[in-house]
């Protein structure tokens, strides 16, 4: 064999080895990015980290809390305004320990108490996906929280009480469906962040796990298998349909944060994932609210009152009937029965109108309903700037008394004003923070005064 042929064959062999290795690496990278895309979708990262659809994950969403506004950061790979300079270890620490790149505590509006359960491989797959996206340069406003909650060091105390660090491991005694559902519910989809009530420290109240919580002014309903307060009388297919489309006939539709979760996350998951979620939720402890008489979708019947067109001449308060027939009946029907095609749901046997708390009904009137799934858009007009708080209260009470749970018909203008702020009920820790701080300062000053007085007396002896 000529030496030149031998050289050519050696060069060809080297090229094939190098290119083969590069192709294998590219295949691995693509697989990792696709895994990360799926995980980021299941975690609904886009909901909190996207304000402008043209700049996905660039942050800027203002999250209302009882302590102030928390602004979600830019998580694109931009090196200056995003996470482009973050290492794998820094990203993992943020997800698992709630610690930022500079060692600062992160606010738990970022649900790292759930994400700590993610495996290291999945955390780094999410990072790989985010780093595959275009870098978006976007400076976002800083979070605005009142003192002392703007002091991040106090979150060390919150973590001590509420953060249980550690990756989630499969339960050997449970089947694959249960374990997959547990990982989705507890870690990735962080369902408990919204659907579990909070205790005095704003940590999850595990004694009422999945028993219903609050997200700003919206209520996240009970998703335990209790047949009255929870989802116990929903079929598996109905629960899957609700997560896939945001709507189940005879039950109701998703709005607010749940509508966003359906649009951006749940509707994009494989059906098996949704069924695994159902499997896991079915296995949870039922949580019953003693005040609930029957399921939320069990209230109401068609009702038509044409006398409403004459209005209420008995007083100066807004007439809820007249407002309903003027602003609502054109879509929801004269008898509140909705439309035959389901585009506008009936108001009776509706999980929102049948709730004892009127929050979600009021918020739907104020903010409207907007979700798009598989190209189909469901939209309800927002009346935030068209109706006064007194008018919103009047029509809410009329709808609750006529089509739903009359126990919720206690809405007044002050309540609507509070819900408009969308900050949620102030927890005990927030109510006591400033008085406690003042008392602490007084005690410290009294102690200092006592010590100085004692020292002065000793010097006079």
TrEMBL record:
UniProt-annotated binding residues for heme c 1: 45, 48-49
Q: Which residues bind heme c 3?
A: 328, 331-332
What cofactor does this protein call for?
A: heme c
Region annotated Disordered, chain positions: 287-314
An annotated Gene Ontology molecular function? heme binding
Q: Taking the first listed entry, what is the main subcellular location of this protein, grouped into a coarse class?
A: membrane
Q: Enumerate the subcellular locations listed in this protein's record, separating them with semicolons.
A: Cell membrane
The secretion signal range is: 1-24
Report the GO terms under cellular component.
plasma membrane
Protein name stated in the entry: Cytochrome c
**Domain of life of the source:** Bacteria
Instruction: Return the InterPro entries for the record.
Output: Cyt_c-like_dom (IPR009056), Cyt_c-like_dom_sf (IPR036909), Cytochrome_c-type_DH (IPR051459), Membr-bd_ADH_cyt_c (IPR014353)
Under Pfam families, the record lists: Cytochrom_C, Cytochrome_CBB3
The record's free-text note on cofactor binding: Binds 3 heme c groups covalently per subunit.
Membrane-spanning intervals of the chain? 432-452
Native organism is: Novilysobacter ciconiae
Give binding positions for heme c 2. Answer: 191, 194-195
